[in-house]
# Entry
Amino acid sequence: MRAFILLVALSWMAGACATARAPRPPGDPAALRYNISCSLGAAPALEVEVVLLPGGPRDFLFSQPGGVDTVWATFEHGDVRALRVTAGGVHVPSAARFLRYRYAPEPRHRGQGPGLFTGMGDEGAFHVAGRAYLLRPRVVTPGLRVELFVEGAEALLPWAPSDGGLYHVRGEDLVDSGFHGFGGRRCLVRLEAATVEVAILGQLTHLRDADVCGWIRQAAVEVATVRHAFPYPRVTVRVVPVPGDSDAGLFGMVLWSSPPSISILVGQDASREALGGDWVAVHEMLHLAHPAMLPHVPWLTEGLATYYTELARARSGRQTAQRAWEELVAGFERGRESAGTRTMAEVVAHGDYMSTYWLGALFALHLDVELRRVSHGTRRLEDVLESLGRQGQTSTLGAFGVAVDAVAGQPLFDSLLARHLPRPAFAELEGLLESLGVRQGPQGVTLAPGPAGAMRQALDGERPDL
Ligand SMILES: [Zn+2]
# Structure
């Protein structure tokens, strides 16, 4: 099958050469073709060939430069010229027909956290971010059509290939081309109306591939406790084992490719029990429940994902409501310690990971409580996510606020934010927990039962009808 695909690819390239001087037919916006050849092993590398058609882009850049110094341009009569990558990009002479370059991450990058972008894996698998190795047009014109073909190793890119193994994408899909996995093994999570394709990019000592897929399935199912249905028909998850570690989710990230792509580092020696207690996979999956914010608003998106990471696991029954609130209270305390005397405005502007995530989670909790309060329990923060989900994959902070107000049926978002921003971070915490019947005392966290805890029970799913 692969040989057949390669033949098709070669004949396509030959056709491109033969018709190089012909004007591009109107209505055919195909302008770029990438042939990617992956070699695995001790020194993995990606050989990339970009087939240029007349009238197509000539200014290219790496979204994350540093991995390639020289791009080789081939001209119609076979002349080859080296183009130095400067300021992350190259300008290609209009007569060039092909660009070729090699991306080979340095060994020191492999197997380490930062290598999640620049390349990591073992002899049979390789993980890299598209932004590190794919040269993309500096300016993407609307309608620019791009094809990618991968050979040498089975690939898991954010996009689904056609039957012939060719990826048809839009030029804008290359702006953030997500995470890419090569080699390794695959498993598939089928949900009611969605699939999650999982690549396991390395060896695991205690886990079967089915365990890994079960872990990802559980995370995906938990997203459905927040959204009516899994938010995308198909997403991809790359799981990269890290030698010498037995924790489950060591680190995870969503890239806002279209559709979004997720990668998670997992300890190579992790056990099934460790997977059961993991929060990283569901946290990353929960990012799919909100739109990508442009420009980014990390305190809000991380706050939403952090808030729901605890509630979704309680709603699914993976952890008790008691445990969920203990985790939330402990997280808020860590965030407050990290924020010190700073206001929310200061944390939002210059915050560290701990204070930003947990301050955002506190705001998400407050927003949810207020939405439920003003609507007498008929509306909730999930309705905002549902409404934004219908509007598209991206949004803005302003549109988020508009959606909150629409769900509330009254102005709410700006005034709540204005209340938090100038005050010391976490100043609202005690009052909010008190209103929910969540108390922290010498015996730890206690939850008020009965009517006093009704709102809290509605949040964590103990009484989802409320
Ligand atoms: Zn996150």
